[in-house]
Write a structure and sequence with these properties.
Elements lengths: L1 E2 L3 E3 L4 E2 L5 E7 L4 E6 H8 L8 H9 L3 E2 L5 H14 L3 E6 L25 H13 L6 E6 L8 H18 L2 E8 L6 H9 L3 E7 L11 H12 L8 E8 L7 H10 L7 E7 L10 H21 L3 E2 L19 E4 L4 E3 L8 H6 L3 E2 L17 H6 L11 H4 L4 H5 L8 H15 L3 E2 L3
GO molecular function, one term: oxidoreductase activity
InterPro entries: 4Fe4S-binding_SPASM_dom, Aldolase_TIM, rSAM, rSAM_sf, Sulphatase_maturase_rSAM
Keywords: Iron, Iron-sulfur, Metal-binding, S-adenosyl-L-methionine
Length: about 450
Amino acid sequence: MRASRYLVVSDTVYADGRGNPVRLVLNTRTSRVCTLGDNLAWALRHGDCATLPVEVSDQLSDLKILVPEGRDELTDVMDEQRAKARSLASLNYVLVPTGYCNLGCEYCGQVHVRGKTSANHRGAVRDRILRGIRRPSTEEVQVGWFGGEPLMAYAIVRDLARQFVEAAEAEGVRYRSRMTTGGALLTMPKLRALYEECRISSLCLTMDGIGDRRSPHEQILSVLADLVAHADEFPGLRLTIRSSLDVKDVNRVDAFIDAMVSAGLNHPMIEFDLRVVQGWSNDASTTRTARQRFAAAEPRWLRRMHEVGMVTRTLIPAQLRGPLCPAVTRTAEVISSSGAIFSCTEHPLVPEHEQGDVLELVEHADHDRQRPAGRYDDWHDRINRGEQSCAGCVFLPVCGGSCPKHWGEGNSPCPSYKFNIQQRLDLEAARTGLTPLLT
């Protein structure tokens, strides 16, 4: 047996409750953090496992910390991710019901214009998804409402969602729905309709421009505070407040935390997700600098958010629960308000992609077939062949390569935990009562 290639051992030695020296060991295959004696953890880090007692070896094998000598773990990981991406049981549709947005975020690469879809567009979208729901192989359908600003097409969302829900119930198919919105058009009546009628169980609200004039209007915070006050009426609703940071925003996170606490949004039903702005096929020359500053400051933000009761994205990277993204999944597709079907969520309403990356038009598509192949459908094979640097990364099981599109554009999309995992392990140790052992 040998140590798995997917282990991260803490640099810090801690003292457990009895004063024994221990380290944390993260297995990214399982997203599990184990507390092991310092000598054992040191042996795992340096691959010195031949002399381990049989009972210890068996225990570590059960935890996938030790694997058989010669085991091709990269292929194992890719096979697991391929299976999720190729399963016919779960269909995923991301719908862009309107090309218009009422915000106009600086980093967005989409072009937002007022205008109507073709007369047959809504019917074609409806028919395509209903056909998918009724396929004998379908067990689950996920519908995401994206933008533009999807609430600019609120009536369309309600009309289509009602038909999707009815069909799923009639076919005995699990139905899940989510929406990404800027939030400016949200009201409590709309929230109730989205939750009860449209069956939206996951709502991502984007709040960008932390601490400056672009910050969310008081009305948004008021609606969210009202939602929190009636949380028991929305069981199972997952609300994520996501803030995308550029270079100038990195210094405003503390103000953002203060604002969220003052509004009473440090509540278990709300999860916060801070991330670095990514370019949408436009100039992202400042992204690398922002990412470096973000990764350096993030552990302090995570600590403070935890102290004030704000729920954050998982401190320790979680396992991929499904396929990486629609772009690598033939049973997933993105339908733009333009009528074009794409594989990538960053293609709709972006001129160069609306010109060059259309897979087919929804009004002309064969609704009994999967979308045509996209440029990233072979992503797992590329990694398995070693054509992507992700093949040698310890975080591949939880990251999956992050974003094939950004890699293809020469913009590394590696998640922040790749650069601050040791500080995250220190935070995890503090949460579990371990203290750094002074040397």
